[in-house]
Design a protein that fits this description.
Elements (H helix, E strand, L loop, with lengths): L1 E3 L7 E2 L10 E6 H8 L5 H11 L8 E7 L2 E5 L12 E4 H10 L4 H11 L2
Antiparallel strand pairs: 1-2, 1-3, 3-6, 4-5, 4-6
Helix pairs in contact: 3-4
Pfam family, one: AntA
Protein name: AntA/AntB antirepressor domain-containing protein
InterPro entries: AntA/B_antirep
C-alpha cells in the first residue's frame, strides 16, 4: 500500500496506481506484520509497545485509515473504529526497524529480509 505524503486528502493509493509517481511512501499493514511475526502478544498491546519503544509519531512513522466510499483515507486515531485493527499502517522504514528488533525469531529475520527488498 502506498500513500502520497503531499496529498492533502490523505487517501491511500492502490500500488498499481502509484507506479512511477514521485512522493509516495511504501506502507505495511501492521496487523499483517503482527500475524507474520507469530507473536503471543495481542495486536493492540504489541502496536502500542512498538509506538512507545521506537518513539514513533503518528502521521510520520505510522498512520490510521478509515473506509470512505471505495477508498481508504488517512485519519487521526480518534476517527477509527476501536474494534478494527486492519487500519493501522507502518511506513516501510519503521516496519524494517521493528522486524530487525525481532530478528532473534526466525519469522522476524525472514520478514526483515523481505522488507529490505521492497
Amino acid at each position: 500500500m502506498n500513500t502520497h505524503d503531499n496529498d492533502s486528502e490523505g487517501y491511500l493509493i492502490p500500488e498499481n496506481e502509484a507506479d512511477n509517481k514521485i512522493g509516495y511512501a511504501k506502507m505495511v499493514k501492521a496487523h499483517v506484520m503482527h500475524r507474520h511475526l507469530h507473536l503471543k502478544q495481542d495486536f493492540s498491546t504489541w502496536f502500542n509497545d512498538c509506538v512507545e519503544k521506537f518513539d514513533l509519531k503518528e502521521g510520520v512513522d505510522f498512520v490510521f485509515t478509515k473506509q470512505e466510499w471505495n477508498r481508504q483515507k488517512i485519519c487521526p486515531k480518534s476517527e477509527i473504529e476501536t474494534d478494527k485493527t486492519d487500519n493501522h499502517y507502518f511506513k516501510i522504514h519503521v516496519a524494517k526497524k521493528i522486524a530487525q528488533a525481532e530478528r532473534h525469531r526466525n519469522y522476524g529475520r525472514i520478514l526483515y529480509q523481505d522488507l529490505c527488498f521492497h
